[in-house]
Amino acid sequence: MKVDLIIKNGLVMTMEGRGVGLIENGAVAIKGNTIQAVGSTLEITRGYTAEREIDAKDKLVMPGLIDAHIHTGLALLRGVAQDIHHWMQKGLWPFMKHVTIEDSKKGSMVNIIEGIQAGTTTFCDYDRSMNHLVENYIKIGARARVAELVNEIPDNIGDVPVGELYPFYTEIGEQKLSNNLSLIEKYHESANGRITCILGPHGPDLLSVELLKEMKGLAEKYNTKLHMHVAQGDREIDQMVKRYGKRSIAFLEELGYLNERLIAVHLTEATDQETEVVAKSGAGMVYCSGSIGIIDGMVPPVLKFIESGGMAGLGSDQAPGNNCNNMFNEMKFAAILNKVKRSNPTVFPAALSLRLATIEAAKVMGMDHEVGSLRKGKKADIILINLLEPTLSPLFVDPIRNIIPNLVYSARGHEVETSIIDGQIIMENRQITTIDTRNAILEAQQAAKEVSTRAKQDILHANSEMLQMMEEGLL
Amino acid sequence: MKVDLIIKNGLVMTMEGRGVGLIENGAVAIKGNTIQAVGSTLEITRGYTAEREIDAKDKLVMPGLIDAHIHTGLALLRGVAQDIHHWMQKGLWPFMKHVTIEDSKKGSMVNIIEGIQAGTTTFCDYDRSMNHLVENYIKIGARARVAELVNEIPDNIGDVPVGELYPFYTEIGEQKLSNNLSLIEKYHESANGRITCILGPHGPDLLSVELLKEMKGLAEKYNTKLHMHVAQGDREIDQMVKRYGKRSIAFLEELGYLNERLIAVHLTEATDQETEVVAKSGAGMVYCSGSIGIIDGMVPPVLKFIESGGMAGLGSDQAPGNNCNNMFNEMKFAAILNKVKRSNPTVFPAALSLRLATIEAAKVMGMDHEVGSLRKGKKADIILINLLEPTLSPLFVDPIRNIIPNLVYSARGHEVETSIIDGQIIMENRQITTIDTRNAILEAQQAAKEVSTRAKQDILHANSEMLQMMEEGLL
Predict the structure, then answer these.
(1) How many whole angstroms separate alpha carbon A94 and alpha carbon A87?
(2) ipTM for the whole complex
């Protein structure tokens, strides 16, 4: 049978079954945007011919990574809010009100480039101005499941003193919800199906109970998921207790939010019991290891969630928190931080990290019929990794393999040489072929320069520990 | 004045003073293997001319990183011992007795390549067969402060059941000590001074009190330091208590080991009080964040050590534990794991990580007169980092800078483009110029294949959790 592309002679890792699904000397046949067959090189080359063949000798061929939670619209502010208290209020918000949609879009593109260069093929982006950011994904050729960040708080929320209840403005919520709906109407299943859209309530503390209820109804109407921060910090719990007299999980349970439509992000502050309630409800969880480690110095209860029968995926969160958007970083941190949390080197083995960045993340996002593993009929989202990089050398095969620990604990991301998304080669020899990456970076640099000029007085006024670090020559 | 090399137009980070010592639009003049001057581009280009100039526009120019604790001789076994209990006994040792000196040397070279590609210029290598491994550093052109691992235990130590006292063999100790001394005699201050040699007692539990005393005397005779594991795990403490009825720190204190000659590596099991004792003694500490996180699920008391007035540096340890030897990885892990340990995002700020990988590590190793910062008279060990990589973009400068958090929390290592060691350019455009890196990797691959064949029965006999993971398709 004639197909468009055959990848052959590689070590294929399908992520099918309960493990990682390795096929030595394997191959993949691709027609259009779809995987036609996966098997041994012998089987595939006997059964298929193609215009183009990629010789994957000394390469690992695996599903593209899924970043289950990223805010690319914040990427322009990478590195401006670290090592301080009140990261969001004193670090981010003084900048935020000076970031235009165009600025945000420029930063987003750099972030997407970074992700693709480190093997991400599906971005679950959750941010404001998504009707604009989504254009970046269309242009660069990535897969994205996007949601508009819907809340009822004003842009100058940073002026509200820490600890005071946020004001809600109905008209702001209506506008943002309308953006989310127009996103769905305009972009859902666009770009050959690469772009899909879901709903994005910002968090139980950031919009009114009326709007939360309305969005729940809309999720049922559109038969879609709700991407939402839940118990994401003591700041949220403080707001919930002050406003409603109850913590986030109990509040959401009463509201009927705890079910398979919910993608509960972070759960940083969830107790073991609350974690179990969410896991058993059928909701998914996204764990952002690096971001929560840096911002909060905490390890959310992802292992407890999985042990309670829940589905979880990994996300890189935003650049000014993590500060990188590299799923290899997340896989390594997820494993090590949980080993440290449990004081046990055997928990969170490498294969679990790999699953949480591929097939399990796909399940959480409701995309496992399309991506997350290499199987006939799924979309052709595939990355090729150079096994002759020193970080992955040498390779042991028998009686034990070392490729899985080395992928998770040693690879940095730059070992990814080729990225195929929706059947199209969008990166080859580490060069992204669809856009001018240097120009994208220079545009973001110019935007950052202008934002810092406009935001200067607010930054000085916020008086975070970073100003003192500047004085002490530490920054 | 005429010099050999000028690096100009860069963002220079000297690591001088108490912070990071940034100079915008800075330059460095190098003559022979020595830094002649550091200053603004204007100053340097007015005062110096050179045969060769490097335009460092959009580059960060900083001291090469110092890996204060690495066992490159184990690198061949990267990835064979993760996610299990008894990492050393059941993971490493079944392989170890089948690894020849030549195998070990081949793995070591891949490890050194990996380090250089991620910005390491000084390797504090501490391993068996150092008289052979040291040739790799001479060949590739790196700086190394090396020590032979001196113990009195046999190669088949893996056959001793977990928990039993190790047998000591005087003749093994004598041979290894003799190797350490011949290393010093033959290689100390060789290769234009790039190679320096110190003493390397393996750990308080792995050689007899007589040999420990002898090595202490030799350290005084040679006026040198002792690179040693101290309180590196419950395994060590168990051996110490069983053999001597006391824990490692108390034992070493009585032996007169706690002073500025000691480089105490890990201190994983040290109590707060023991940590303070070591810090106040003048001994240095090396913290290996990734390795101890993976192997033990622990965060050693490095912050307590620094707070007690001690000098600390970072090390990457061995590839089959960490599993990578990348100081960017160590810097990020050091910061985040300590934030998590203290549940406080403000502890271990980015600048501290940078100092512990440069100037503070140089102090711990007794090399701060030569390396660790950019200053007139120091050796020219300098790396250039591309600031236009997406992981470091965009750059904010005023009123706060983001380059330091982004270097520590976002860079992966591959942003390092150029490496100058002892005044020689040994990597340019990410290509190491002094050896054939591909050939080195293929040689290590062949050696690994042979080792796994020879070790197969021992690996099966050790019956670690990795065999079960193989069966379950997790490896």
Answers:
(1) 11
(2) 0.96
CATH of A2-63+372-432, one of 3.40.50.10260, 2.30.40.10, 3.30.390.30, 2.40.50.100: 2.30.40.10
Q: Is the Cβ–Cβ distance between B109 and B137 less than 8 Å?
A: no
Q: What's the mean pLDDT when you consider all of chain B? A: 96
Local structure of A325: helix, strand or coil: coil
Distance CA B454, CA B459 (A): 10
Residue A400 gets which letter from DSSP? S
Assign a CATH topology to domain B2-63+380-430. Urease, subunit C; domain 1 (2.30.40)
Q: Does A437 touch chain B (CB under 8 A)?
A: yes
- Closest in B83, B336, B398 to A345, CB measured: B83
CB nearest A114 (choices: B322, B390, B413)? B390
Rounded Cα distance, A200 and A183, in Å: 11
- Fold agreement (A2-63+372-432, A65-364): no
Distance from the A408 Cα atom to the nearest Cα atom in chain B, whole angstroms: 9
CA atoms of A50 and A203, how far apart (whole Å): 48
The domain segmentation of chain A, as residue ranges, is 2-63+372-432, 65-364
Q: What is the pLDDT of residue B160?
A: 83
Q: What's the average model confidence in pLDDT over A466-470?
A: 94
Average pLDDT, chain A: 96
- Phi, psi for B138 (deg, rounded to 5): -60, -45
Q: What is the pLDDT of residues A439-465, one digit of tens each?
A: 999 999 999 999 999 999 999 999 899
The CATH-assigned architecture of domain B65-365 is Alpha-Beta Barrel (3.20)
- Assigned CATH for A65-364: 3.20.20.140
Chain B residues whose CB is inside 8 A of the A324 CB are 391, 409-412
Quote the percentage of chain B above a pLDDT of 70.
100
Ramachandran angles phi, psi of A15, nearest 5°: 60, 20
**Which chain B residues contact residue A329 at CB under 8 A?**
332, 412
Contacts 24+ apart (CB under 8 A), A41-47: A41/A8, A41/A9, A44/A6, A44/A8, A45/A6, A45/A8, A47/A1
